[in-house]
From TrEMBL:
Gene3D superfamilies: 3.40.50.2300, 6.10.250.690, Winged helix-like DNA-binding domain superfamily/Winged helix DNA-binding domain. It comes from Chitinimonas arctica. One of its GO terms (biological process) is regulation of DNA-templated transcription. This is Response regulator transcription factor. Keywords: Cytoplasm, DNA-binding, Phosphoprotein, Transcription, Transcription regulation, Two-component regulatory system. Its main location: cytoplasm.
Length: 228
């Protein structure tokens, strides 16, 4: 049974979401402040965290920052509807996805399952099948990456995006395709998740000998991972 940590100061909403998640087969523990959320998240007892942004004392963004300092575990953020700043900041700090509040429990479950599917252990064939592209080496089954001979720390969403681009290196991949294959959902209008994740990957890869980013934007079309 997948263990979910729910961090939200809204006790009534937490109870409702926990009940729904448990009916869907998850084991849920709810805590109601950011500090307790960080401690629980780093305990090693959970497969995924649902983290509210707006909390007193320690908000969700700072809690995510502290979690990411020690762990790459999947994190889904609950953000205020229409608050792009919180969404973008959360994604930049390594959140795997977000759901605007008030949220539909059904949508929350769908997003959680999509994240968990992306991070699930692959079958034996996939586990053995690494992807090498120049100085980039990816192990999709383990969600591990190496760049220029060193471990490349990526969130689950960043890894899947880079994997999709690496499999089609030298070709432009449209945002709708990236969203479907890497994030497990259709691209929504005004959704900037892909851009934010790509920006983070670019920073981690640095630039090539020509000073260009390894991932190129093609206006109106999508992104392309260039070959060496």
């Amino acid at each position: 049974m997948t263990r979910v940590l729910l961090v939200d100061d809204d006790i009534e909403l937490s109870a409702m979401l926990a009940e729904y998640l448990e009916q869907e087969g998850f084991a849920v523990r709810a805590v109601h402040d950011g500090e307790a959320g960080v401690d629980e998240a780093l305990s090693g007892r959970y497969e995924i965290v649902v983290l509210d942004v707006m909390m007193p004392r320690l908000n969700g963004v700072e809690a995510l920052r502290r979690i990411r300092a020690h762990s790459r575990m999947p994190v889904l953020m609950l953000t205020a509807r229409g608050d792009d700043i919180d969404r973008i900041l959360g994604l930049e700090l390594g959140a795997d996805d977000y759901v605007p509040k008030p949220c539909s429990p059904r949508e929350l479950v769908a997003r959680l399952r999509a994240i968990l599917r992306r991070g699930a252990p692959a079958d034996a064939l996939a586990e053995a099948g690494s992807i090498r592209l120049g100085q980039l080496l990816l192990w999709p089954g383990r969600l591990q990456a190496e760049w220029q001979g060193q471990p490349l720390p990526l969130t689950g969403s960043e890894f899947r995006l880079l994997e999709v681009l690496a499999r089609q290196a030298g070709q432009v991949v449209g945002k709708p395709t990236l969203s479907e294959r890497a994030l497990g959902r259709p691209l929504a209008r005004f959704d900037r998740s892909i851009d934010v994740h790509i920006s983070s990957i670019r920073q981690k890869l640095g630039v090539n000998a020509d000073g260009r980013a390894w991932i190129q934007s093609v206006r109106g079309q999508g992104y392309m991972l260039i070959r060496e």
